[in-house]
Here is the input.
Amino acid sequence: MIVREATREDFEELFDVFESVAAEKKWIGQETPLDREGRISTWNEYLEVEGSVMLVAEDEGKLVGMATLKNKGPADLGMLVAQDSRGHGIGTALLEACIAWARANGHYKITLQTWPHNQPAITLYERYGFEREGYLRKHWRRKSGELWDSVVMGLVLED
Here is the structure.
């Protein structure tokens, strides 16, 4: 398995991974149905905007995960791993690559939000030094109409 920066050539296959995780309606903010062209169009900014990056995890020639860092200064982290690839170190590899990339590119902090029920992700983030910085109650409206809470976490990269 390798982690590398994404290219435009990855976007079609990556969208399929993204859509499959969104269809689970449990782990990421996006829910199906998704606009393929619109989503892929927004991904271009990760390749073009200074301080932003999209990383992909590739296993035996197949994309199985992605992570994004966006913004100069504190970078916002988003990450996902395909269902059949979870529990094999993909998330760990992506997170390590994100932290290294953020440090190398002048970020002083990484921030993220995750669902309170996403204990595997929270455990991973805490293992790498992320701290819970806040809790947003009934913050995100789901397509079902439900309002979900969110845990805000951060990792300061400078002393």
About this structure: The chain has one domain: 2-156. The mean pLDDT is 96.
